[in-house]
């Protein structure tokens, strides 16, 4: 009987977890679209994401970028955190990290949505950025105020052309409607906690 490589096994489990989470995100987008009586073509026109891409996303066959999730969420009237909050821990006093399934986005950002509090408009996620990766080539924008705390590693946050290098223990706070990108220029993963709040 062949030995199973532990690293291969871990990768397989991670791939399976990501596939399940992508399917859950797709179901969430389809549910929200249909509850608003929108066709794929109407959502495509409102978001700027093609109908063919939206169809693949809804069926869990492709991983949407952060930018795509943001504009699709805006077209549906929800935040990206609501699209990614596929585990319901709203009633839990304690949320265990191990019980929250991560989503690996195309930009190789691993996100665990720890809390989506609809009553206060606050969401909290733990994000991990692989070395040499970023949120994408184009700046992103959201209608929230974000507070990012670096747990480990180094991140560069570009906001409207100005770069801010954050190291372990640093905090950054800014309105996400300002065009920005998040990049890991380091050689090790960078882990952050993001607390985002709806703008008042």
Could you give a short description of this structure?
This protein is α+β, with helices and mostly antiparallel strands and 200 residues long. The protein has five helices and nine strands; from the N terminus they run H-H-H-H-H-E-E-E-E-E-E-E-E-E. The strands form two sheets. A six-stranded antiparallel sheet has the order 1-2-3-9-4-7.
Order of helices and strands: HHHHHEEEEEEEEE
Tell me the structural class: alpha+beta
Number of strands: 9
**Low-confidence regions:** none
> Strands of the largest sheet, in order across it?
1-2-3-9-4-7
Largest sheet: 6 strands, antiparallel
Rg over CA atoms, rounded to whole Å, is 17 Å
Q: Strand portion, in percent?
A: 25-35%
Q: Residue-averaged pLDDT, rounded?
A: 86
Distance between the termini: 61 Å
Helix content: 25-40%
Helix run count: 5
- Characterize the overall form: globular
List the helices and strands and how they pair.
Layout: H1 6-35, H2 40-47, H3 51-58, H4 66-76, H5 80-84, E1 103-104, E2 109-117, E3 122-129, E4 144-152, E5 155-159, E6 162-166, E7 171-175, E8 180-183, E9 190-198
Antiparallel strand pairs: 1-2, 2-3, 3-9, 4-7, 4-9, 5-6, 5-8
